Each structure stands twice: as C-alpha cells, then as structure tokens.
Amino acid sequence: MDNFLNNLKCLTEVYSQKDVAQKTGFSASSINNYLSGKSQPSASFLIKLKNAYNVDIDQFLTSKMDKDNFTSSNLNYGKFFGNYIVYYYNSSAYKGKVGSYNYDILTFGLISVINDKDISSSKGTLAGGLFMLTRMDAEKYLKTLDSFNGDTEKIKSFYSSFPNSYFGNLQQNATQVFISLKNNNDQCLIILNNPPSSKKYRGGLGTVNSISRGREHVPCVQYILLSNVSFKVPDGEIYNILSLGVSNVNIKNETKELIELIKNLYFNPKPTGLSEYQQRKIVEDSIENIVQNAVDANLFRFAKVSNMEDDQYYRLIKDADYE
Prior knowledge:
Layout: H1 2-15, H2 17-24, H3 28-36, H4 43-53, H5 57-62, E1 82-89, E2 106-115, E3 125-133, H6 135-147, H7 152-160, E4 166-172, E5 176-182, E6 187-193, E7 203-210, E8 222-227, H8 235-242, H9 252-267, H10 276-298, H11 307-319
Antiparallel strand pairs: 1-2, 1-8, 2-3, 3-4, 4-5, 5-6, 6-7, 7-8
Helix pairs in contact: 1-2, 2-3, 9-10
C-alpha cells in the first residue's frame, strides 16, 4: 500500500485528481479515499488506471515511482534502439480488386531506431524505414541490420543504399510512441502504445497513416505490426490481427429465404413461365442482396488498438522463434 499511495500521489500531481477521476470513471471521493489510505484499490480501479495511463500494474504496486515515470521529460529513448520487422497490408490491392481471403496482400518492411548524436531533437533518435519487401528479404535484412550491433553509420548506409528508403525520427510521451518517416514521394506517421516498462522494446501493434502517390503498396491508413524478431506463424494469423474487424456473420434467415426461392423456381410442380436465364438472374440478384446486406450490417467503420489486439500481438511475441 505504501508504494501504491506514493505512486498514485505522483500520478495525480502530474495529471490532477480530477483527471484521474474522469479517465477511470471513479468518483473524486473514491480517489481521495485511496490517497488517504482509507480504502484499498479495487482490481477494477487498477485496470482502469492501466488503460487510462498505460501504467504497469505490477510496478505500480511493488515499486516506488516518481513523477518522471508519468511525464515525457525524462522518458527512456534507449529502450527503442534496435531493428524491427514490419507487417502490414499491401495497399496496391485496393478495394474492389481483392478476392476472398487474399492473404497474399500481407507484405513486409523494416524500421530501425538508432542513436544519432548529430541530431539534437527527439533525444538524438534517427529512424530508418524500408517497405514493400517480401518476407524472405525482410527476414534476411533484419539479420544483416542486427549484425551491425547498433553501429549508426553502417545502419544509415544500409538504408541509403535503397532508392525508396525512408528516414525520420521517433518521439514519445508517457503513453504513446510516434515514428515519423518520409522519402521524396511519401510521408507516414506510425502511432504505437508506449509500454510503461523500461525494458527493451520488443515491438507493438499500432496504426499508420500515409497518403502516397498512386496505388503503391506502401502502408496507408491501417494497422501495422512491429517486432524485433520474425514471427514463425502462418501469414493468415498475422493477416487476421491486422484486419480492422472480423465479424461472425449470421445469415440463417437469409439462407432459408434463398432455399425457398430456389424451391419455387426449380422444384415447384407448377411451371413459372420464366426462362432459364431469368431464373438464374433472380438467384444471382438474391445472393447479391444477401451478401450486400450482410456486409453493410457488419462493416467496421473505425478501429482502435485495444487490449484485445494487444493480447494477440504479445501472444505472437511470446511464441516467437529467437534462433
């Protein structure tokens, strides 16, 4: 409780008690009771605290923290230094041109974050990026970059050897990480959760926003996955994590109606007077309406990097092959 009281006090000094109450959904009196030690925190409050401020619950309860742990002024940039393989959708397979379950639209890239002393901003971080790679090339280049052991000049030279490489920087606050990259034709911003731990960053699931020239398969507005190791799992599993939403579509009623329609058209003892083409056209139109209505009813118009998606990502990290 001593650690909890100290850490909650530091948090409220940075963000205010009112802010903590609003973001957790607990009343101001409840926050006061926690701060005064009159009541112990509930599991629900700790989970709300984690979601609102990205705090590590274990650290919050067992270690003494200070205000710097909740501000961006002294954030640890070194934990992000390293090389990451990137998974995202090939945006050249644009809407209307993608068949069912086209897992081959999953594509790959690389991002490196290095300490460049020549850069005064963003704590001297330089980010390099390379997209539009095959899985084989991405995995091969990741091994090459890792073999440089953080040598800034070698990593910069590697990215400069590709005509379509990106350069930029990494910035962060207490809860988010921002990787800004650009080349001559395009600029993109990647936003990721910032883990509260000071341990080496292993990657994460975030969003990327890029508006590029033409229908090129660089990342656009979509989920993007970073990892400092290559996942030894089928592409389809990663494909599903990156999707904006996967629905369980129930079309039982529509199926019954379609069966009745086919019975009346083809198995009714009374002739319908319709030609074979007209019958087929009626069935086609019915199927098209069923599919369109199902899509409209289950269409995801927005998405968030929620705890559920984070859990899927960290399961991949846990199962990753480190050989």
